Amino acid sequence: MKVLNDTRTAFARELGPELRRPAGLLFTMLLPFLLLALFAPLLSGMSPVGGNTGTGSSWQWFAPGVLVLLALSATAGAGASLLNEMSSGAFERMLVTPLNRAAMLVGRALKEVVILLAQAVLILVLLLPTSFRFRPLGALAGLGLLTVFGIGIGALSFTLALHSRKQQTLFYGVQQMIFFPLLLLSGVLLPITQASAPTWLHVLSRINPAAYVVEAERALFDGRFAETSVLYGGLAATAVAVLGVVAGIRGMRNASV
Amino acid sequence: MIHTRGLTRSFRAKGETVEAVRGLDLDIEAGSVVAFLGPNGAGKTTSLRMLTTLLPPTSGSAVVAGYDVLTDPSGVRHRIGYLGQGNSAGSNFRVSDELITQGRAYGLSRAGSRARAESLLAALELEGLAKRTVGTLSGGQRRRLDIALALVHEPELLFLDEPTTGLDPHSRATVWEHVLRLREELGTTIVFTTHYLEEADLWARRVMVVDHGRVIADDSPEKLKAGLAGDRIILGTADRADAGRAVELARALPTVHEVTADGTEVRVRTPHGDTQLPVLLRNLEAAGVRTLTARLTRPTLDDVFLGLTGRTLRESAGATTATATHDGA
């Protein structure tokens, strides 16, 4: 019970500033928005995209990947706020309170997910004028998967911040070093198949959990629930979430100044 | 309220082990007001961080408010309030939200937290700022908000790490007025560090002088000053011969620590200058020594530190800042 109350306290604290500045949501949406506006139209003449087995247009193929990109870009930087609080003294104050350390991590991660979902819904609304076919059940399942993945990436970002306390450039360096390979090897922009990619690149993409999440999102938003890609995507997102939350809670419990 | 034995904390810095706190033995009773006094890098902040569970000790033990800092840190956290040197409130948050969050963290209801926040804002002269974002406050307002955050749950033990640094005299007085009122009303034990010597002198009932990670003196400010520094009587005599005779007469007084002469000026260090001065003046007059001026100066805690270490706190602050290997130690 205390953990739940403390999670709610931590979540409410983090969400407050976001609710007062809703325009802030748009900043982390810039890259996905630019891709939808300036890159997706280029794919319209390419059908089926990369041999995609989906049922719809190139928008149907591209948009779910953009949501995963959004999850990566929005939550990977979540640790920056923690880093800021660690250098200012606010985090030190929180550590001396009886707030459950796990709740401090989970509350923060949940706030990131709420923001992510709001952004994802906004992107789906922006897609309405396109040929993207909106399937409510598929969208719900897709957003659920995105939530699990977002919790994991957000928690990993907090973990990285906790370990970068004494050297803040470490956080930004590692974050960028991981973010771009994850993105490029996920097949968000172009399909990475055995036929289209060099073997080494294809192998790398197969060890990238984001690639499985992207494929699962495409299947879910297309209403293809029974595909193995959904299972693999679910497992990959869950693995990232478990890893992130366990590492984050451990980091938070051991946090000192 | 606080009991430590052999509390030690060392850090690795540039391949070397630096002992920030060395074998701290403390026994602080409930209701005390205790100041840690020492230059930067002496180990004051590190000691506070160990006692508040922020930093695990390298060795030794500490029981704070009845709970062991290592085996039951949560028990400690429930009972203490803490004000660090940094900004306790996040820049992007609203003043009232931070206070309410703090209350909730200590188990207060939402309504209780809100009421407590309003009361603290009024007490610390922050009314009208409840809806402001913390980042828009002035330095003094932010510090008073930090104090309010530490007091939200009316802790039985309050740790303050340089609580009034950067505040103007009026704000400093306001902060201390509120902190001491809390002590009067609830019997709160207060442990603080400060580099305002007069604050330690004025508010602490017990001063622990810390240097190089060790407590080198521990007593009330009055006893420290009387025992280690003493009052100073400064006499101006008519000529060197009178000065020489004044030195002899001063040395004949009881409980005189030191008598020195510099030209026609004679300096007498004694623990009880207020009672010794009239006696000395009578003796000088009876002996026909021509005394032109007489002054009595009271010692400061800086004089105590000088007496203990051979250097002043201000000199030490400069030296240790240049060589400090661990921030805040």
Question: Quick recap of the structure?
Answer:
The complex is a heterodimer of chains A (257) and B (329). Chain A is an all-alpha fold. Chain A has eleven helices and no strands.
Q: Segments of chain A where pLDDT lies below 50 for 5+ residues? A: none
**Which H/E pattern describes the elements of chain A?**
HHHHHHHHHHH
Segments of chain B where pLDDT lies below 50 for 5+ residues? 319-329
Helix content of chain A: over 70%
- The CATH superfamily of the largest domain in chain B is known as P-loop containing nucleotide triphosphate hydrolases
- Share in β-strands of chain A: under 5%
Briefly note the structural class of the backbone of chain B.
alpha/beta
Strand order of the largest sheet of chain B: 6-7-8-3-9-10
Q: Return the structural class of chain A.
A: mainly alpha
| Cα-to-Cα separation, first versus last residue of chain A | 28 Å
Biggest β-sheet of chain B: count, sense, barrel?
A: 6 strands, mixed
The number of helical runs of chain A is 11
Overall structural domain count of chain B = 2
Number of strands of chain A: 0
Number of individual domains of chain A = 1
Helix-strand layout with pairing:
The complex is a heterodimer of chains A (257) and B (329).
Chain A: H1 2-20, H2 30-39, H3 58-76, H4 79-88, H5 90-96, H6 101-126, H7 136-163, H8 168-184, H9 199-206, H10 209-221, H11 228-253
Chain B: E1 2-13, E2 16-28, E3 33-37, H1 44-51, E4 59-64, E5 67-68, H2 73-79, E6 80-83, H3 95-105, H4 110-123, H5 139-151, E7 157-161, H6 169-186, E8 189-193, H7 197-203, E9 206-211, E10 214-219, H8 221-229, E11 231-237, H9 240-251, E12 258-262, E13 265-270, H10 273-286, E14 291-297, H11 301-309, H12 313-323
Helix pairs in contact in B: 3-4, 8-11
